[in-house]
Amino acid sequence: MENNQIEQELDLRELLHILRRRWWMVALSMFLVILLTVVYSFFIVTPMYQSSTTMMVGSSGQSLPGGLNFDLSDLTANRNLAETYSVIVDSRRVANQVIDQMALELGPGALNAQVNVSQVRSTEFIEITVTDPDPELAAEIANTIGSVFQETVIDIMQVDNVSILDEAIVRNSHVSPNEPLNIAIGAVLGIMLGVFIVFAREYLDNTVKTKEDVDRQLGLPVIASIPYMEK
């Protein structure tokens, strides 16, 4: 048991010695991978921007004094209806009308791929988020989808119970790529790649350099050694 523990300690010490001896390979690998990540994140990949509009599903015609609609049964029905309306927003019918109105050079499938429709925390609110390389176009598409969706609900459901809570605005900060995260991931991958290269090179190197190599590879005792001296 003690011999196995000693051997494990020696193996770990030898691995650390290998890493210390070839630390520059790990550092070079990390630097190159980070450099590639920076070039990719800042100069190759296209930045993507998002813009969102929020729609509210509400019953029309029933109001309390002051004009506020508040009925628990209606509120529950609106929450359930919001989930159904999310399907209408993401339909080809709405996409085709948006493409025609804005003269977009996209198919309905490509447009829907840029659109994410979600119900806000199981409420009666629907959030329409558009992702596009042009921040102004992303906002315009989101607002157009919202207005087309309102008209489509009237045509299909024969009821006007959708209103716009927040219109989409232009956001000049891109959502992807995430440069700091990419650089951090690149640094970790670079270190892992460098360590792999170091151990692979050490494993494939069958030359004899130390007394330990003679004992391990040849099984012969070392009679003498010539020390290395600087000139």
List the helices and strands and how they pair.
Layout lengths: L1 H20 L1 H22 L4 E9 L14 H18 L2 H11 L5 H6 L1 E5 L5 E8 L2 H23 L4 E5 L12 H26 L6 H8 L13
Antiparallel strand pairs: 1-3, 1-4, 2-3
Helix pairs in contact: 2-7, 4-6
How would you describe this structure in keywords?
alpha+beta, 8 helices, 231 residues, single chain, 58% helix, 2 domains
Question: Could you explain the architecture of this structure?
Answer:
- It is a single chain.
- By secondary structure, the protein is α+β, with helices and mostly antiparallel strands.
- It has two domains: 6-43 and 177-218, no CATH class; 49-166, EIF_2_alpha (Alpha-Beta Plaits, 2-Layer Sandwich).
- It is 58% helix and 12% strand.
- The chain contains eight helices and four strands; from the N terminus they run H-H-E-H-H-H-E-E-H-E-H-H.
- It has helices at residues 2-21, 23-44, 72-89, 92-102, 108-113, 135-157, 179-204, 211-218; strands spanning 49-57, 115-119, 125-132, 162-166.
- It has a four-stranded antiparallel sheet with strand order 2-3-1-4.
- Helix 2 runs antiparallel to helix 7 and helix 4 packs across helix 6 (135-157).
- It is elongated, with a radius of gyration of 32 Å.
- The two termini are 46 Å apart.
- Residues 60-70 have low confidence and may be disordered.
Mean pLDDT: 84
What is the string of helix and strand elements? HHEHHHEEHEHH
**Could you say which structural class the secondary elements and strand pairing correspond to?**
alpha+beta
- Which regions contain 5 or more consecutive residues with pLDDT less than 50? 60-70
**Could you give the distance between the termini?**
46 Å
| Helix share bin | 55-70%
Number of helices, counting only DSSP H or I runs of 4 residues or more: 8
Largest sheet: 4 strands, antiparallel
CATH superfamily of the largest domain: EIF_2_alpha
Overall number of strands: 4
- How large, in whole angstroms, is the Cα Rg? 32 Å
Number of domains: 2
Percentage of β-strand residues: 5-15%
Q: In CATH, what is the class of the largest domain?
A: Alpha Beta
Per CATH, which architecture of the largest domain?
2-Layer Sandwich
